[in-house]
Design goal:
Layout: H1 2-17, H2 20-23, H3 25-32, E1 49-53, H4 58-69, E2 73-78, H5 81-94, E3 100-104, H6 110-123, E4 129-132, H7 150-171, E5 177-181, H8 205-227, E6 233-237, H9 245-250, H10 252-258, H11 265-277, E7 287-289, E8 292-293, H12 306-319
Parallel strand pairs: 1-2, 1-4, 2-3, 4-5, 5-6, 6-7
Antiparallel strand pairs: 7-8
Helix pairs in contact: 4-11, 6-7, 7-8, 8-12
The structure holds NADP nicotinamide-adenine-dinucleotide phosphate.
Residues 53-54, 56-60, 78-80, 83, 106-108, 133-136, 154, 181, 183, 238-239, 241-242, 244-247, 268 line the site of NADP nicotinamide-adenine-dinucleotide phosphate.
Length: 325
């Protein structure tokens, strides 16, 4: 028994450090065999309400569908209500008795985030789970209406503001959990403390994407501390490589070369769903992949100090229109 447990841990470690096999469906299938069938248990989310951003396609839609399958009432946070409605119909087609609705929330637009949070405050008694899944990988540097670089606004500023505005609703839940869907791409990037808006140097969408995914992971700790008094736990995870409309549009060549090995959206969604629904609250402030905590760095050059994180956190709070604590 001890030997097979050690073998499973060793395999998990090797899959993680060799990157490509671990991120592919090979890693998922190998690890999945070691997880208990009843975790999360059926009906684990019964009576809970979850908001999933970017839930009209890919991993976000798969997270929403899985939470619905576990009994949650799910709000699909989307920037295009028509696309949200299509996803709602698809999810409900599996079981018409489930509760799924569409909430307009363009996370790159601070005004839209504020409006969405106000609507939730009027309509919900509490919010149990918030999944920051919406993601973009732009071709060129774009600024939002608020004057922020698009990936920073989408992956960091909007989620910070939304979390803060719904924190009172989440504080009313028994075991509230916030989950960031980050990316393994963040391993390549240090923390862009001196240029969070990517104003300097040659802009590359993939770099901006990875930098802001790095920020999500770096800010998970401070956010966990900030929300601990309200009992809200904060987690980040990466899904591996999953075949989604986002990958097809942003990385067509990568998809062509790796397609047979890519995870399904549901496999990419698994750890976010597990973090939302597993019975024992996972420890707050950590970074996860395939249901285990993972290192935040593989490269020496990406390491940063607590002071770097504090400075970035302060910049992002101000940029999101929040008071700095
Ligand atoms: N697929 C992978 O292998 C992979 C790997 C690592 C990390 N991830 C992460 O997983 C998450 C989901 O990605 P995916 O692969 O499923 O891509 P996807 O199919 O393109 O899904 C992204 C979703 O985000 C939504 N979105 C983008 N900007 C938004 C905004 N401002 N407000 C609200 N929603 C917005 C999109 O809505 P529209 O339909 O309106 O564009 C879409 O529903 C992302 O955070 C991504 O970084 C994916």
């Amino acid at each position: 028994m001890a030997r097979s447990f050690d073998a499973a841990r060793w395999l998990d470690f090797v899959l993680d450090r060799t990157i490509a096999p671990g991120y592919s469906r090979v890693g998922f299938v190998a690890r999945h065999r070691c997880w208990p069938d009843d975790d999360p248990r059926p009906g684990a989310m019964h009576g809970s309400t979850a908001l999933v951003t970017g839930a009209n396609s890919g991993i976000g839609e798969a997270i929403a569908a899985a939470l619905v399958g576990l009994g949650a009432t799910v709000l699909l946070g989307v920037r295009d209500p028509e696309r949200g409605e299509r996803a709602r119909r698809e999810i409900q087609a599996a079981d018409p008795n489930t509760e799924v609705s569409v909430a307009r929330c363009d996370v790159a637009d601070l005004g839209s985030v504020t409006e969405c949070a106000a609507t939730l405050a009027e309509t919900l008694p509490r919010l149990d789970v918030l999944v920051h899944n919406a993601g973009v990988l732009p071709d060129e540097r774009v600024e939002t209406a608020d004057g922020h670089e698009l990936t920073l606004a989408t992956h960091v500023l909007g989620p910070l503001l939304l979390t803060e505005l719904v924190a009172p609703l989440m504080g009313a839940a028994a075991d509230p959990r916030v989950i960031f869907v980050a990316s393994g791409g963040m391993y390549t990037q240090p923390l862009a403390v001196d240029d969070p808006e990517f104003r300097d140097g040659q802009y590359r969408g993939a770099t901006a994407y990875a930098r802001t995914k790095r920020m999500q992971v770096a800010l998970t700790g401070p956010l966990a501390e900030h929300y601990a008094p309200q009992g809200i736990s904060v987690h980040s995870m990466h899904p591996g490589w999953a075949d989604t409309p986002g990958i097809a549009a942003a990385l067509p060549r990568f998809r062509r070369l790796t397609r047979p090995l890519l995870r399904t959206p549901a496999q990419g969604a698994d750890t976010a769903v597990w973090l939302a629904a597993t019975a024992q609250t996972p420890p707050s402030g950590r970074f996860w992949h395939d249901r285990r905590t993972r290192p935040e760095h593989y490269l020496r050059r990406t390491h940063y100090t607590d002071e770097n994180v504090r400075r970035l956190y302060q910049y992002c709070c101000r940029a999101a229109g929040l008071q700095v604590s």
